[in-house]
Amino acid sequence: FLDYLKAIEGIPIDYKNSLYKIKKTNLVRLISDPDIRNLVGILYKNGIFSLKNVNDYLLGLLYDLIFTAISVGNIYYKADRLQYITNLKDRVDKAKNHPVTSAGGNPGVTDVNSSGGINVPQNGQKPRKPGKSYPVNRNTLVPSVHHLTITNARIQKMFNELKNLDINYYSNAAAVLFRVFIELSCDCYISTHFLKAVTSDSKLGQKIEAIASDMESKSIMTKNELRTARQMSSSPTQNSSIKTFHAYVHNKDVTPIPEDLKSAWDDLWPFIEKIWV
Q1: CA–CA separation, 141 and 96 (whole Å)
Q2: Model pLDDT for residues 186-228, shown as the tens digit of each residue
Q3: Under DSSP, is residue 162 helix (H, G, I), strand (E, B) or coil?
């Protein structure tokens, strides 16, 4: 998507030259949100992102990603992203009515403060509170705040190891163990809930789909809540896709990235948690 943006007219050249500065985690978290895509004019179809047009909201978003230090903790939850949308729209709309040239020459933002961040007009509103203290910058795959009641001794040990293994030094070990933990957890759910359509010998994608269908039919999770789990087999380029997990085990040229692994765990956590309820 970033390579695609480099070829789009209407995006300032200094932005194009600085796209490499964008943190992948922040970009994915933002443009994966349909409300943000609707505001900035990003289309998503068949795993591909593209643009309706270049508007000031898109330029404001790119400015924030390139030139300001957005914390993933401040856009991690849906409520935080909705607040971000409100602030972005407010800044851009005010800039249209009262144009001020920023350091980057962007018509879609207000003036830049001394620390390099964008000044956000308050209009008497209280300053935005910091994001929830979810441990996104942790050194392990599994956050300390995540707890499971696991009935299988070996899988419990795997969970504990993933809670203690330093992912920055042992990303290969964490990636492979993560893959095994997911499948063995699925096997336990299948046997405990007596699912007939699959067995422990079935492919991982079939297991996940069978479990998702069972959870949906029993109102354990909604269809929307199960989207990430189902995308494991339908969206092969995702950090949490089965294809990516297989590559960690079988492809000598694929190196697990700690931030990608943590993002995959965070996305799959609601599904993992329900497996062990």
Answers
A1: 43
A2: 999 999 999 999 999 999 999 999 999 999 999 999 998 999 8
A3: helix
Place of tokens 């390579």: 3
CA separation for the pair 119, 95 (Å, rounded):
11
- Which uninterrupted H or E stretch holds 84? helix 78-97
pTM: 0.57
| Cα 62 off chain centre by | 17
The tokens of 177 are what? 């163990």
Torsion-angle region of residue 174: left (phi > 0), alpha (psi -120 to 50) or beta? alpha
By the 8 A CB rule, do 190 and 243 touch? no
Report the distance separating Cα 109 and Cα 164, nearest Å.
Answer: 43
Tokens of 156: 């419990």
Helix-, strand-, coil-residue percentages of the chain, each rounded to 5 = 50, 5, 45
Q: Per the structure block, which two tokens stand in for 214?
A: 């069972």
Distance CA 23, CA 145 (A): 25
Asked if residue 270 lies in contact with residue 245, where contact means CB atoms within 8 angstroms, the answer is no
H or E segment to which residue 91 belongs: helix 78-97
Nearest to 186 by CA among 234, 247, 229, 153: 229
Phi, psi (degrees; rounded to nearest 5) at 264: -65, -45
Question: How many CA atoms within 13 Å lie on the side-chain side of 56?
Answer: 17
